[in-house]
Automatic annotation (TrEMBL):
This is Trk system potassium uptake protein TrkA. GO terms for molecular function: potassium ion transmembrane transporter activity. Keywords: Ion transport, NAD, Potassium, Potassium transport, Transport. Signal peptide: none annotated. InterPro entries: K_uptake_TrkA, NAD(P)-bd_dom_sf, RCK_C, RCK_C_sf, RCK_N, Trk_Ktr_HKT_K-transport. GO terms for cellular component: plasma membrane. Residues 1-121, 230-346 form the RCK N-terminal domain. Pfam families: TrkA_C (PF02080), TrkA_N (PF02254). Residues 141-225, 366-446 form the RCK C-terminal domain.
């Protein structure tokens, strides 16, 4: 697939590296020659220097021949203009990053479709929704629903008290009882393992579990940690993510939002009428203790600096806060943050990648989730009639070694997949795959 990316900032460069690694032909546009040079040194891409909102530059990038145009410039208006022009010039699909929730309202989305923009994505909104979802499932580090909640992916670390420690993984035998959940991957020592027959759970494993809706509560208890009822929460950072979290939750729980910028704090106090706004530096240990950090059920650090978020999250953990979530945009810091005990990491680049990846797949991908603590992706497919997946039981399909099917939704029925499960046309299949296999697995369902 030929893909043109407008914007060589952090998000654009991440997308370029990720998509070029999957065999796509990538061209990236930016007016900053230094940013282009950095991207060119890290990924196999063509670069075009110039303004992506001009016809001349878009023509130089050959957008008339591109299959997908992605606008991720820093300025929202530049993205809308660039995506509109690219579609008019011949791009098959055109998508744009935005920063305004108003644009996502149904009537307004229709206007953008009329302009030629196929899809708008607002990373901060999706990241905020992930945090809110996790606050309802506090024993997990990630939680994702598929097929309207009929299947769920829960990710959690095995504590010493977990009943799974030392047990063998199930799902590999023939004729066994129907399962209500299945572990589809394990992260151990920084390495992601697709489990096979004979694999056992170890203390400290981060496990990725696909579960039926009726089994989610039982799966949560397997971590060895109890779920926390969040009543008091502190948010560090009046960013778009922080504001959205407070806006959606301030009617339900007690929220304190801390921001070091006095002018911003005053503005937030005017708009978030049920949230207590505090003008303070979140790195100041004494100040945070005075504001009652140790009494919080949950702490969410979403300032614009990964380092600040990590340090503040470490402090919250030390103060005994039960659920700690930090935004870490520097991908190099994610493993560090997880290793020092931060419960959950959110990253807008990975959120965006999950939104965009499905546009690069040739088959019917209904959803895709790029996981924070692993290189792997979880994908949801709709199986087409007479596709290879319908010809044999799962064990005989010849799936790549680093891919595993977790669950199947067939109408109102939900199955956890095992080796002898037979897939049917129009099933919704949730599959876990490492990067090398993401581009290959679509063949089985097409």
């Amino acid at each position: 697939m030929k893909i043109v990316i407008a914007g060589a900032g952090e998000m654009g460069s991440h997308l370029a590296r990720m998509l070029s690694g999957n065999g796509h032909d990538i061209t990236i546009i930016d007016a900053d020659q230094k940013l282009l040079a950095e991207v060119g040194s890290l990924a196999d891409v063509l670069t075009v220097e110039g303004d992506s909102t001009t016809f001349a530059v878009l023509r130089r990038a050959a957008v008339r021949r591109c299959d997908l145009f992605i606008a991720v410039n820093h300025e929202e208006t530049d993205n809308i203009v660039a995506a509109t022009l690219a579609k008019r010039l011949g791009a098959k699909k055109s998508i744009a990053r935005i920063d305004n929730n108003e644009y996502l309202e149904p009537d307004n989305k229709e206007l953008f479709i009329d302009m030629g923009i196929d899809y708008l994505f607002y990373p901060e909104k999706v990241a905020a929704r992930e945090v809110i979802n996790l606050l309802g499932h506090t024993s997990t580090t990630e939680y994702v629903d598929f097929s309207s909640g009929k299947l769920s992916l829960a990710v959690f670390r095995l504590e010493p008290a977990s009943p799974l420690v030392g047990e063998a993984l199930s799902g590999f035998g023939e004729g066994q009882e129907a399962l209500s959940y299945r572990t589809v991957a394990i992260t151990r020592g920084g390495e992601t393992i697709i489990p096979r027959l004979g694999e056992r759970y170890l203390e400290g494993d981060v496990i990725y579990v696909i579960a039926r809706q009726d089994a989610v509560h039982d799966v949560m208890e397997l971590s060895g940690r109890s779920n926390i009822d969040v009543r008091n929460m502190m948010i560090l950072g009046g960013s778009r993510i922080g504001i959205r979290i407070a806006t959606e939750l301030q009617d339900e729980i007690n929220i304190k939002l801390v921001d070091y910028n006095a002018e911003k704090a005053y503005r937030l106090a005017e708009t978030l009428d049920k949230t207590l706004i505090i003008n303070e530096d979140g790195r100041n240990t004494e100040a945070m203790m005075e504001e009652g950090l140790s009494n919080m059920d949950a702490f969410v650090a979403v300032t614009g600096r990964s380092e600040t978020n990590i340090l503040a999250a470490m402090l919250a953990k030390r103060m005994g806060v039960k659920k700690v979530i930090a935004e870490v945009e520097n991908l190099n810091y994610i493993n560090l943050a997880e290793s020092i005990g931060i419960d959950t990491i959110i990253n807008k680049k990975l959120v965006t990648a999950s939104n965009i990846f499905r546009f690069t797949m040739s088959t019917d991908v209904q959803a895709i989730k790029c996981l924070t603590g692993s290189d792997a992706e979880v994908l949801e497919f709709i199986v087409k009639p007479n596709s290879p997946a319908t010809k044999a039981p799962i064990k005989d399909l010849g799936l790549p070694e680093d891919a595993i099917i977790g669950g199947i939704v067939r109408g109102d029925k939900v199955f956890i997949a095992v080796d002898d499960t037979q897939i049917s046309a129009y099933d919704r299949v949730v599959l876990f795959a490492m990067p090398a296999s993401v581009g290959k697995v679509g063949y089985y369902f097409n």
